[in-house]
Amino acid sequence: MMPLLAVGALAAITYALRIAGPLLAERATVPAAAQRLFTSAAAVLLMALAATSALTAGHDFAGWARPAGVAVAGLLAVRRAPFPVVVLVGASVTALLRLAGIH
Amino acid sequence: MRLQWRTDLLSDTALVRDVALVCLADGIVGVSFGATAVAGGLPWWVPVAMSLLVFAGGSQFAAVGVVLAGGSPLAAVAAGAVLNTRLFPYGLAVSDVTSAAGGRARRWGTRLIGAQLVTDESVAFALRHTDPARRRTAFWTCGAALFTVWNIAVPLGVLAGSAMRNTAAFGLDATFPAVLLALALPTLTDGRTRVAAIGGAGAAVALTPLLPAGLPVLAALGGLAVLWRPRRRPDADGAGDSHAARRPAGHAIPVRSNR
User: How many CB pairs below 8 A link A and B?
Assistant: First the structure.
């Protein structure tokens, strides 16, 4: 079980990471090129997190149902469907595939 | 620029609508987080306290996932913390809007609160705009709304999870990557960022079986290498892919003298 201490530690580390950027930017001007790089870095991290959480569970392949649902959600996102539609359809596709015995 | 003026007129109602939709989507993710945590056997206060204090969906799922898979609390903290290192570049990317304008005390007070609201979603919203006032409005509207919704949704999920046996049957595990994808895709307007993101995502997936949880996502940053080499070349690299015109919003750099 996860003690309160672990939750507190993760919260403290997370907050430190959050405030570090604004504090650093206060002391020194961030060059435009660096700012651009950080913007790209954020996009890269988002996509990597989306891909790993769609395709993997722990160290293994997550099975077909989840990535299939996420792929349909991605397609809807590209076609500018509203966010809740994207999410609900993604979850429904995954759930229906599992119902059909595809995991 | 012409388009920008038109966009500005519509953007307040559009912002509220888009934030509401993201909140609804994240509400579903929050419910699935609360449900997953208690269905796996954690006490109710763990997901609730995490949502208030950590307030970062990815790391919350990662940490709880490690514990439910039998990992130690230390490994759970490490996985969550490594995943949240992305909040550092996020913080830098939106450092101009995390505090309100005004006196020293007001600036500091809002900066301390604003930092807690730095999330994938609030940063993505801020980066849609170049105008500082719009960036600030987008960031704070999304951040505050999301904090409220997240901390209502997770306890609801805790209640639901106590009743639900098998959260996977409802496809709840697909909600988090779906939200991330919906957020990330519109930010990939720049050709080379797109290459970096797709390459990085591929590398992260390939490295997942080999590295401890959280590290593969960071390894994806290696994809940024594609941004370095062709930097000073004139626009010969990609027909019609003018970077000056298609740069993702988020930089108050109106003129590019080197192009």
Answer: 307
